[in-house]
Structures are given as structure tokens and as C-alpha cells.
Write a structure and sequence with these properties.
The complex is a heterodimer of chains A (about 210) and B (about 200).
Chain A (H helix, E strand, L loop, with lengths): L1 H21 L15 H5 L2 E13 L2 E7 L3 E6 L2 E13 L4 E9 L3 E14 L12 E15 L5 E9 L4 E8 L3 E14 L2 E15 L3
Antiparallel strand pairs in A: 1-2, 1-4, 1-11, 2-3, 3-4, 4-5, 5-6, 6-7, 7-8, 7-9, 9-10, 10-11
Chain B lengths: L5 H16 L2 H9 L1 E14 L2 E7 L3 E8 L2 E16 L4 E10 L5 E12 L13 E13 L4 E8 L4 E8 L4 E11 L2 E13 L1
Antiparallel strand pairs in B: 1-2, 1-4, 1-11, 2-3, 3-4, 4-5, 5-6, 6-7, 7-8, 7-9, 9-10, 10-11
The chains are: A mainly beta (about 210), B mainly beta (about 200).
């Protein structure tokens, strides 16, 4: 009788824990179960293993791609290839640092961005679960371009408060790999023409800063 | 010695059930969901020596453009603003204003998704302190025949608002941001109060 009671309590506990275990799988490629929280998995030093950023305005497309060592900039039929490193660190206090260093024979480009990160998402109609979206709120950036024989050109941005925020869908968030993407399409009518603006960012992260 | 396991198990089950049913997010969702009317709004946008200012008292909206504290343009409108937050995570924003001098009526409608953001210790935000709004469709019309509709698909950017008051009878949202772009500072402030429609 006593054993049956214990067994019943264990079953009840198991049933109540099912939603907790299910919540592990949030993104499409997330593992079914993990002991690590989403915050613990995200908050590490990462290097970009793949990055793609495409900006489209009607038929004009500008694309940048990084494969872990080379940065490829495509504009129309022109293609420029440079050596690069790209890293991002997410801190447990809610901040992040994004760094890019791109160089070729004649120029060096450095980019440093800092900001706050948030998990968000959810809602029956939104097609996302809570913590499936990662919001990055940029609070500063410094871009420096140094072309051989010329003075460096710097672009500075700093901000505070309730700033507009980029959003990424976390497809995979594991302890050693992150896959996320942001796809935004904007369609409107200008005069008699329908205008299509699009921006796609695909980011794959691998463990450890370079 | 015989261990009594009933109490820890009872506490454990209670905690799990409490977490599932009474999380802050769920309570705050219940408070926010509803059809609201904006009863007051004030906003400003400043850079260099210029300032754009809007004040709305629930009926009359006054917009001013100031340069070095002198008014260079002022417009007055009569109308209303409504925001309907649905429990499925969507919202519908609508505003209609008639210009008091020209008689032209402008309407703006926005559909989108709303979310609470997670906590951020460095920025000092707890769960449900911030309301994120993500537009999926925006339509602007005037009775002069001008129409402009923008449809967004995918992960459109979020507009973040600080929730300073949240109850079933009153919501106060605030937005303050300052951006410095190559030594020029742009400051935006906005605060609006919602009451049930």
C-alpha cells in the first residue's frame, strides 16, 4: 500500500514535470532535453562560423557573407574577398559585445558593437514560443576604416533608453552551437509601383572566440 | 530513522503548479489584454536646436515644431487613439484625426504582435517591465485620397516601451531614448496613458 502511494506520487510529479521538459525544445533544431538553461547556453564567447547579410531594394541586392575565415562582399556582379574574424560574447548580466576585423591588402575595417540582449517571443498567433526570439538592442558602435595612405575614418554611435531593437529567431541554441536568423520583408506602394525591401541576416555561432 | 517525504513532495508539487498557473507573465497578460483608449499622450523629438512636440488630451492633439524655442509651425487636430491588445499576442492600433484648420482627416492603423521581454540585470529590467511591439502591417489614409500601406513579414524590429503602471483600469507606457550619431544627439520621449474604451 505504502509503495503504491509512493509510486502514485512519482507518477503525479512526472506528469507535472512534462511541460518543464518540453520547454527545453523551443527552436526547430533544439535538443529534446537539456539540463542547461537557455541563458546558460547563450552566455558564452562565440565565434561566427557563418554569417550572411543580404539587403534588397526591388532588384538591387547587396550581400555580405562570412565562412569562418573569409568575408565576401557582393554588389551586383562585383565580388570582394577579405580575411576576417567575427566574434560575439553574451554576458549573464544582459549585455553583449560584437566585433569584426576585416582586412585585405589595402584596407583594414574594424567594427565594435555593444548592447543589451533579451529573450522574447510567445503568443498563440505569433508563431513563436517564449524565449524563441533573441532581441539585440544596440547601445554603441564604432566603425573604423583605415585605407592605406589615408587617415582613418571613424563612425561613432552611442545611445540609451528604450531603443528600437533587432530580433533574431533562435533556430538552435545548444551549449556549443547557435543558429539564428532574421528575415524582414517590407512591401508598400509608391506611386503605381509596388516596392519590396528586404533584409536577411543568418548567423551561425561556434564555441570559443577566435 | 524514518523520513517523512510527504511535506517536501507537497511543497515541490505546489511550486510546480504555482509556476505553471500564476507566473508574472500570465498575470500581467491578463491585465494588459483588452480594448484601450489613449486618454493622454505627450511626446517630443529633439536634435541640435530643433524640437518636435505633440500633446494629446484624449480629444485634441497639438503638434509643434520649434527652432531655438520659437514655434515655426503649429497644427491642431481633433480625434482619438485606440489600442486593442488580444490574448493571442496580437494588437491593433488605430488613430483618426481631423485637422482643425484644413478639415482633412487622417487615419493610421497598425496590426502587429506584442511581447513581454525577458529580464536584463544590467539594464535593470525585470520580466514584464518592457512591452515589445512588432508591427506586421501599417496603413495610413487621408480623405484626400492618399493611401499608404506597408506590410511587414518576418522578424521586424521591436519598439520597446517601459510599463510604468499596469492594472485592469489604467496602463501607462513610457519611451525614452537618446542616440548620439557622430556627435549629434537625438532625444525621443513619449508617455501615454490608456484607460478601458
Amino acid at each position: 500500500m505504502k509503495n503504491a502511494k509512493r509510486f502514485l506520487i512519482l507518477i503525479v510529479c512526472g506528469i507535472l514535470l512534462i511541460p518543464v521538459f518540453n520547454s527545453c525544445k523551443v527552436g526547430d533544431e533544439d535538443a529534446g532535453f537539456t539540463f542547461y538553461t537557455r541563458k546558460y547556453r547563450l552566455c558564452q564567447d562565440w565565434s561566427f562560423s557563418y554569417y550572411k547579410h543580404v539587403v534588397q531594394h526591388n532588384d538591387t541586392i547587396i550581400s555580405q557573407e562570412y565562412d569562418g575565415s573569409s568575408y565576401i562582399h557582393i554588389f551586383g556582379t562585383q565580388k570582394f574577398i577579405s580575411n576576417a574574424t567575427m566574434t560575439i560574447s553574451f554576458k549573464k548580466n544582459g549585455t553583449y559585445n560584437w566585433e569584426e576585423h576585416i582586412s585585405n591588402d589595402t584596407s583594414v575595417y574594424t567594427y565594435k558593437e555593444t548592447g543589451y540582449w533579451y529573450f522574447t517571443g510567445g503568443g498563440k498567433d505569433s508563431d513563436t514560443k517564449f524565449k524563441e526570439l533573441l532581441a539585440l538592442q544596440k547601445t554603441s558602435h564604432t566603425k573604423t576604416i583605415q585605407i592605406e595612405g589615408q587617415s582613418p575614418v571613424t563612425d561613432n554611435y552611442s545611445a540609451s533608453g528604450n531603443l528600437e531593437t533587432r530580433v533574431f529567431r533562435l533556430i538552435k541554441l545548444s551549449i556549443d552551437e547557435v543558429k539564428m536568423e532574421s528575415k524582414v520583408e517590407q512591401q508598400y506602394i509608391e506611386g503605381t509601383n509596388t516596392v519590396l525591401d528586404g533584409e536577411i541576416t543568418i548567423i551561425n555561432l561556434a564555441m570559443g572566440a577566435q | 530513522m524514518k523520513k517523512n517525504t510527504a511535506l517536501p513532495i507537497f511543497i515541490f508539487i505546489t511550486v510546480i503548479i504555482s509556476t505553471m498557473f500564476f507566473s508574472c507573465r500570465k498575470i500581467d497578460t491578463m491585465k494588459l489584454v483588452g480594448d484601450w483608449k489613449v486618454v493622454s499622450l505627450s511626446s517630443s523629438y529633439t536634435f541640435n536646436n530643433e524640437k518636435y512636440e505633440t500633446i494629446f488630451d484624449g480629444t485634441t492633439k497639438t503638434s509643434k515644431h520649434l527652432v531655438s524655442d520659437s514655434i515655426v509651425e503649429e497644427n491642431s487636430y481633433t480625434g482619438a487613439i485606440y489600442t486593442d491588445y488580444h490574448s493571442d499576442g496580437t494588437y491593433v492600433y488605430s488613430e483618426t484625426f481631423k485637422h482643425n484648420d484644413t478639415g482633412v482627416t487622417e487615419t493610421l492603423g497598425v496590426d502587429g504582435h506584442w511581447y513581454f521581454t525577458g529580464p536584463n540585470s544590467e539594464a535593470d529590467w525585470a520580466v514584464t517591465d518592457l512591452l515589445a511591439m512588432q508591427a506586421t502591417k501599417s496603413t495610413f489614409n487621408t480623405d484626400m485620397g492618399n493611401s499608404h500601406t506597408t506590410i511587414y513579414q518576418g522578424q521586424n524590429t521591436l519598439e520597446l516601451y517601459e510599463i510604468t503602471t499596469l492594472s485592469k483600469t489604467k496602463v501607462v507606457l513610457k519611451m525614452q531614448k537618446a542616440e548620439t550619431i557622430n556627435f549629434t544627439q537625438y532625444v525621443t520621449t513619449m508617455e501615454f496613458t490608456l484607460e478601458p474604451r
